[in-house]
Amino acid sequence: MSKFPRLEIDLNKLKHNIDKVVEKCGERGIFVSGVIKGFNGIVDLTKVYNLTGCSSIGTSRIEQVIEAKAAGVKGPFSMIRVPMLSEVDEIVKHCEFSLNSEKVVLDAINEACIKQGKRHGVVLMADLGDLREGFWDKEEMIKIAGYVENQLSNVDLRGVGTNLGCYGSIKATPEKLEELIEIAEEIEKGIGRQLEIISGGGTTTLPIVFDGTVPKRINHLRIGEGIILAYDMMIQFGVDMSFLNQDVFTLQAEVIEVKDKPSYPVGELSFDAFGQVGEYEDRGIRRRALVALGKVDFAYADMLITRNKNIEVLGASSDHLILDIEKCKDDIAVGDIVEFDLCYATIVFATSSKNIKLSIKDIN
Length: 364
Ligand SMILES: *Cc1c(COP(=O)(O)O)cnc(C)c1O
Description:
By secondary structure, the protein is an alpha/beta fold. Helix content is 30%, strand content 23%. The strands form two sheets. Strands 1, 10, 11, 12, 13, 14, 15 and 16 form an eight-stranded mixed β-sheet that branches. It has an eight-stranded parallel β-sheet with strand order 8-7-6-5-4-3-2-9. It binds pyridoxal-5'-phosphate (PLP).
């Protein structure tokens, strides 16, 4: 079997990132749940979280938890996508806690717990405007919190949480998180005790942790991208993440053709392979390289980041990537390997593509 395309993963660099994020959050009294869904729960990587101070391992897919446990990874595990009714039995069986927003699911969790002779923790999600999961009606949320506390025999109300910057692109600000704390304190008044967890989001909350403006009562975050890539917040928000490795992952692919060609297509323009009309700039004849991987491996060609800054990504079809190598034309030949950095938009595809081989550098 061919060795390429290949994803090189450096577990030492991953561990460094987890340790640093856990340390920085720890300075503010914040526990970190390490979120593994960004790399599709590849077990060799998930294992590394057990060597660190993460308080739990989180993911949106129960399959990844089951696989991790089978490989000997230790929990606690948290289900961070609000559960499907049809997977509640498995979630109770395999996860210590889950994020929730529906009474009917909470009832089903309690039933499953009774059946399995177990207890399960829940964190109730508040939607503060990002418009994905969570209670919109805060009175309803407070009422359900009381219901879980007093009526569900085997379910433990562990706390509240929110998610920002996933669908609605809403920024995590101290003011938004104060709203979450207000809800938490209303719930605490009702149930007569302190909540254990106030979970203030994911990577998009890291900037206000680093600058110290995160509200004091936030004591839990669920961090995926900010650990595994530490790239998106730096590029999109200008947050200094230079103390983390941006190169835990290196995507490598092989050059299969190198030729001088026109930069503007020749003939009548119609649709490309994905039903779109491409945009092409006429820059005359230029040297291009064709590389053996494509959109099925990374989805978004314009989100690939070339390590060699003299290489430009022109576009891709399902199995071909087209590069402009005019600026480094003498350095690249057929059979050479080109390297790319990944961002969140591309890594979720690269780690789920069965074409891409893994090459894992173990902890030393
Ligand atoms: C994916 C996810 C996270 C982690 O997000 P990152 O941006 O990768 O840190 C946290 N919480 C929930 C509910 C998620 O779905």
